[in-house]
Amino acid sequence: MADRPADGGERLRRLVQQHAETSALLGVGFVPCYGDAGGSVVAEVKPVDALGARARADRPEESGLGEEIVRDGSDPLPDQRSTSDGSASDGLTSVGSKFEALEALRVRYAADEPHAGFETAHTSIVFGEGDPEARLMFVGEAPGADEDRVGRPFVGKSGQLLDKMIVAMGLSRESVYIANVLKTRPPGNRTPTIEEARLCAPYLYEQIRIVGPEVIVTLGKSAGQLLLGNSSSMGAMRGTWAAFPPSAPLVPVDAGFPSIAVMPTYHPAYLLRSYTADNRAAVWSDLKQVMDRLGLPG
To answer: What angle do CA 124, 108, 111 make, to 5 degrees?
Structure first.
């Protein structure tokens, strides 16, 4: 066996244990094994590699992104330009330009303050995070108290469960993009209203357009209703493929927006509250459909 850092085996042990714990949480009766015929470890696992198909260019230093945008307060989102074949091009052809576009959108959101139009109990704007070229995007409902405190999406108990769900899919948090419909915490962590979603939807739509995922997983009823343009129950939406934008969106979508496959599923917070074998199996079934669609190993 090739030499490796002394902590490599311990790191792999923790990863396999996390797979096992997540499988138990979701009602899955198997866990992946990594080793040779004798059971010894031969390679470290890197879940992000499972994404495969989308190559990633070298990324600029995060500390330098958006400095000019913040400094002059302009709105530098790339204009749509026509390509030689007449199709629309938004200039988002590299990881760096997508980072910059997302940062510009964050600055624009902070300046526009759409949350000023409704009651909010926030101290931080929780905009979104992850790979700007992610093939998979998760969209939740709104930040909670933990997310508001640190300014990042899905970091509380439901976020910890989401992390385990992502790892169970063979991915890592860094390889997906995570956002919410609302970017600020509602009072008492309540569910966003239709009016709140309407005010904040254009910024989420722009996040989706910039990232350009192949699949969106909506987490919870309000996220599913917004992106699917309906008022269905969570039970009626989950488990069935849909598309964004829908034919009749609740909030207008720019013409020419590319169609993206959507899989609605239960919010991790709901799963923690209603921790039944049926609910765990339902979520895992939804995630398995996403894995199959993206060609991820089961």
So the answer is: 65
